[in-house]
Amino acid sequence: MTRPGRTAPAKPRPPAPARREPLLRMIALARPRGARFALGVLLGAAATGAGVALLGVAAWLLATAAQHPPITALSVAVVATRALGVTRGVTRYLERLVTHDAAFRTLADVRVRVYQRLASTEPVRRFRSGDLVSRLVSDTDATQDLLVRGLTPPLVAVVTGGAAVAVCTALLAPGGLLLAAGLLLAGLAVPLAAAVLGRGPGRRQAVARGELSTALVDTLYGAPDLVAYGAMDRAVQRVRRADAELTRVARRDAGILGFGAGATALITGLTVWGALLLGVAAVAGGTLDAIPFAVLVLTALAAFEIVAPLPPVAARLGAVRASGERLFDVLDTPPAVDEPEHPRELPAGEPHLRVRGLRVRYGPDEEWALDGVDLDVPPGRTVAVLGPSGAGKSTLASVLFRFRDPDAGSVLLGGTDLTDLPVDEARAAVSGVPQDPHVFASTLRENLRLARPGAGDEELWAALRRARLASDVEAMPDSLDTEVGSHGSRLSGGMRQRLALARALLAAPRVLVLDEPTAHLDPDARDAVMADLLAAAAAAEGCSTLLITHDLAGLDRVDHIYVIADGRVVEHGSHAELLARDGWYRAAHTAAG
Question: What is the recorded membrane topology of this protein (predicted)?
Answer without folding.
Answer: Multi-pass membrane protein
